[in-house]
C-alpha cells in the first residue's frame, strides 16, 4: 500500500475510520508515515495529533481503542480508509461516533440480534427472551417448530395480516435459536452468499 504523504504541505493524509461490523463512519483523523507504521505494528489506530503535535493512539487515555482490522488507500493515494473495531465510544464527548450517531447496523435484523443479546441477560421475570432462554435449548428449538407450523397453517388461508405476523414470529424465534447455538445471522448470510456465487 503506497500512500502519497507529499500531496499535503504538512505531510498528513486524512484517515477515515469506519466500524468493520456496522460500516458506520466513526471519526476522521490525520496520519503521517510514522502514525501509519505504528498503527500497523501495534494493531491500534494511531494518528498524528495537530493540536498535541505528536503521535496519538486513539484510546491512550480513555481505553477506548480502535482495533485495526484493515486499511486501504484511495485511487489518488492520498486518503486512507481504516476499518476498525471500536472498544467503547469513539468521540471524546462519549458519543458512539464523532457525528453523535448511534453505532449500530442499519440492517434491522442485525440490530435485533443485539437487542436479543441484551434481553437474554435480563431477569426471566422481566423479559420473554430471558424466560425462554432460561428453559434451555430444547424449549427454544421447540418454539421455532411451533412458529413454523403456525406459519404453514396461515399460508393456506387468505389473511395476509395473520400470515405476516406468523412470519415475523418465526423469524424472531429463529434469531433466538441462532443465539442459543452461539451463532449470528451473518454466518447464515455468508453461507447463502457462497452458494449464490457458485
Automatic annotation (TrEMBL):
The keyword Translocase belongs to this UniProt entry's keyword annotation: no
Gene3D superfamilies: MazG-like, Phosphoribosyl-AMP cyclohydrolase
Span list, region Phosphoribosyl-ATP pyrophosphohydrolase: 109-198
Pfam families recorded: PRA-CH (PF01502), PRA-PH (PF01503)
Region Phosphoribosyl-AMP cyclohydrolase, residue ranges: 1-108
Record-stated family: In the C-terminal section; belongs to the PRA-PH family. In the N-terminal section; belongs to the PRA-CH family.
Protein name: Histidine biosynthesis bifunctional protein HisIE
Amino acid at each position: 500500500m503506497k500512500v502519497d504523504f507529499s500531496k499535503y504541505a504538512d505531510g498528513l493524509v486524512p484517515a477515515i475510520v469506519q466500524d468493520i461490523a456496522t460500516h458506520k463512519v466513526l471519526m476522521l483523523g490525520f496520519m503521517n508515515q510514522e502514525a501509519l507504521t505504528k498503527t500497523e505494528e501495534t494493531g491500534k489506530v494511531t494518528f498524528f495529533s495537530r493540536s498535541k503535535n505528536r503521535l496519538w493512539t486513539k484510546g491512550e487515555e480513555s481505553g477506548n481503542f480502535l482495533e485495526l482490522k484493515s486499511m486501504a488507500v484511495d485511487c489518488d493515494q492520498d486518503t486512507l480508509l481504516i476499518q476498525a473495531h471500536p472498544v467503547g465510544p469513539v468521540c471524546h464527548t462519549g458519543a458512539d461516533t464523532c457525528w453523535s450517531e448511534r453505532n449500530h447496523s442499519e440492517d434491522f435484523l442485525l440490530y435485533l440480534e443485539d437487542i436479543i443479546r441484551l434481553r437474554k441477560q435480563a431477569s426471566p421475570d422481566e423479559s420473554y427472551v430471558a424466560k425462554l432462554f432460561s428453559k434451555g435449548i430444547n424449549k427454544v428449538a421447540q418454539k421455532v417448530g411451533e412458529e413454523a407450523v403456525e406459519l404453514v397453517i396461515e399460508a393456506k388461508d387468505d389473511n395476509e395480516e395473520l400470515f405476516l405476523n406468523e412470519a415475523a414470529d418465526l423469524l424472531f424465534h429463529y434469531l433466538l435459536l441462532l443465539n442459543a447455538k452461539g451463532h449470528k445471522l451473518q454466518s447464515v448470510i455468508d453461507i447463502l452468499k457462497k452458494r449464490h456465487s457458485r
